[in-house]
Amino acid sequence: MCVKGFVRGAIAGVIATAVVAAVLWRRRKNLLGRQTLVGKPSSCCCGGKDSFSVTPGTDKCSVCEFRRLWIEHVFWTREVAMLMFSNHTLLAEISTETLVQNQQNIAAWLAKALKDSSVQAPVYSLLKEHVAIAGSIITALKAGRDADAQKLVLAWQVNGNQVAAGLFAVSQKHKLGWKLPELTAMMRKHLDLTVQQLLAMRAAMNANGGITNYGKASLKAFVDGESHIVAMADALVAPIKCK
């Protein structure tokens, strides 16, 4: 009886995760065509075609592509968190690999758009650390090690400042006009909204470790974080001349 109950609970957890993921994926697609905060989106956002890829042989960039990469960053972060909190370890590992690849794609996009290969490695290194610390925070929260989680959040904020400084260095080199205080503030808000989401998600866990209710607070933090990341992506790409 206990085994049957465990199996039913596991199946319910997988179904719940899949349903939420499907809803969030549809939202992601809708955001790709939304009016940007810094001007009109490129035609690809309306026509459904990306005019830039990180694959060899392409040399065009677009608001649409850069926005998509950052939306996928917050989407996969939430996906990893949901899977970790609901004890789907193998699926969480697979999704984490995708999340890390996403950070590499963001760095590659900047290098390609700016026609400067030296940009990719340092930006990717900082972003890779960004998602690694996030994973450690989730692990600590899940285990109830709040003191460790708080220390990790502080380390995450330091990394966020480093990401901002790294992007500012790119801006200085290529005369993009990104300002360090604004970059730092955008990164901090991204971190704060993610932490809010994770805390609310943990609060929705039941005693067996399965997520029974994602909760309005967790979903609101995700939606707010997604909207913020779109604005951040648009602000970053605005001064880059896409051809």
Tell me what portion of residues adopts beta-strand conformation: under 5%
**What is the structural class?**
mainly alpha
Order of helices and strands: HHHHHHHH
The overall average pLDDT, rounded, is 80
Question: In one word, what is the shape?
Answer: globular
Q: Compute the gyration radius: what is it?
A: 19 Å
Q: What's the number of domains?
A: 1
Distance between the termini: 63 Å
Helix share bin = over 70%
Description:
The protein is mainly α. It has one domain (2-237). 75% of the residues lie in helices and 0% in strands. It contains eight helices and no strands. The chain has helices at 2-32, 43-47, 63-85, 89-114, 120-142, 146-174, 180-203, 216-237. Helix 5 runs antiparallel to helix 6 (146-174). The longest helix is centred in the first third of the chain and has 31 residues, at 2-32. The termini are far apart. 35% of the residues are buried. Residues 1-20 and 32-60 have low confidence and may be disordered.
Please describe the topology of this protein.
Elements: H1 2-32, H2 43-47, H3 63-85, H4 89-114, H5 120-142, H6 146-174, H7 180-203, H8 216-237
Helix pairs in contact: 1-3, 3-4, 3-5, 3-7, 3-8, 4-5, 5-6, 6-7, 7-8
Question: What tags apply to this protein structure?
Answer:
single chain, 243 residues, mainly alpha, 8 helices, globular, disordered N terminus
Nutshell version of this structure?
This protein has 243 residues and is mainly alpha-helical. The protein is built from eight helices and no strands. The longest helix has 31 residues, at 2-32.
